[in-house]
Here is the input.
Amino acid sequence: QVQLVESGGGLVQPGGSLRLSCEVSGFALVAYNMVWYRQAPGKEREWVATISPPGTTYYADSVRGRFTISRDNAKNTMYLQIDSLHPEDTAVYYCTRPAEGNYWGQGTQVTVSS
Here is the structure.
């Protein structure tokens, strides 16, 4: 059974950092493109970053240079390191496996506020 479980969200001050995790089960993380999305209150869901099976990474312009997507194949876990947080980064962050079923996690809330 395919499952994706995000964790690591929370309340952080502007300029702070967080590391989000996406632990997957039921498949090998390294075999698929894996994606982070986010959805801010009242806004449409927004693509954030992708990591391909060879490890190539792609970022939305709004987060490039501040966010880092990575994975630990041994732990079957994907990460999103978020630095220099802005209030506009406040959103629910989701990890997804778009291929073969379009699986999504339940999301983890990130709130950036002083």
Summary: The CA atoms of residues 50 and 58 lie 5 Å apart.
